[in-house]
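Session log. Operator J.P. requested a structure for one protein chain; no other inputs attached. Running the standard single-chain path with token output.
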Amino acid sequence: MKKTELIISGPLSLDALDEDAQVEPQVEQRLLAFGSAQHGMRLDRALVDLVPEFSRNYLQQLIEAGSVLVNGQVLYKASHKVRVSDSGLIELRPTPQSQAFKAEAMVLNVVYLDAHLLVINKPAGLVVHPAPGNWSGTLMNGLLAHDPQAFDLPRAGIVHRLDKDTSGLMVVARTRAVMDALVKAIAAREVKRQYLAIGQGAWLGASRREVDAAIGRDPANRLRMAAVDLSLHPGKLARTDFELLANAAQACLVHCTLHTGRTHQIRVHMAQLRHPLLGDALYGGGLAFGMARQALHAYRLAFSHPVTQQALSFAAPVPPDFSLALSSLGLKYNPGNI
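Structure written below.
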């Protein structure tokens, strides 16, 4: 199987939506067509599939308010099971969530594009999904402006995410079939994601280390995650492989390979190794050396194309702030050696 390696040099362009497409009506009646994917689902869960710009909680409120009809009948129970070929109507009223699902023109560094998917090099500071405090200006908003097909997909085709202050590569689907295939590939650990991280303090011990520690909400601080004992606290299994690339008195450059994709996984596992990421105040990182965010960059992404089966591999050079920190610390980075 042929393997394609792409080194990012600059963005590609996509067609933008017409300005009129960004206008949000005050009240919208939308037709519903339940398919095989929704057969047997609770009504509220099925609506999440068909109206992805709204939260499940808000859709439940619409059901209770009598704003949802199925086969001509008003339904008031979110637990009602829908069937394939059911049809209906929902009356939508604007909320922060719904208003978030709109196109916003922004420059996106699209490094690969075909009819099925695209790969983006996300800058640090860009939020991926709309959420409280960030209902606009997100990657999802930018995708909607760059690709009209994104309006037909849940979350505009986003199948995985990076933290706001993590830079690097993400794959985004352009069709529902490819979106489903990528989600399955990620769950099966067939999408390879590798990161560069600058940890605080000189690296001690073996140059290669594996951390196999479950991650859940920190019982002492609900704003962050932590390595947890699953017999005592809820969480999910998490595994990361680390390899030392360069070492200095104040910091270390580490290559990280994810085997799972938990929230803040590398940040938590590096903190557990007593090397919190440079600039990552949430997990104890300091010594910023010009880093105004955690020193984490998703530099390589590899997977088999869901349609063509071609092996694709992408590499993104480290951004300027990351490069400056490496230089300031005397950490030498040679991309050809990893």
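Operator note: The helical segments are 43-50, 56-64, 96-100, 139-146, 176-187, 265-272, 320-329.
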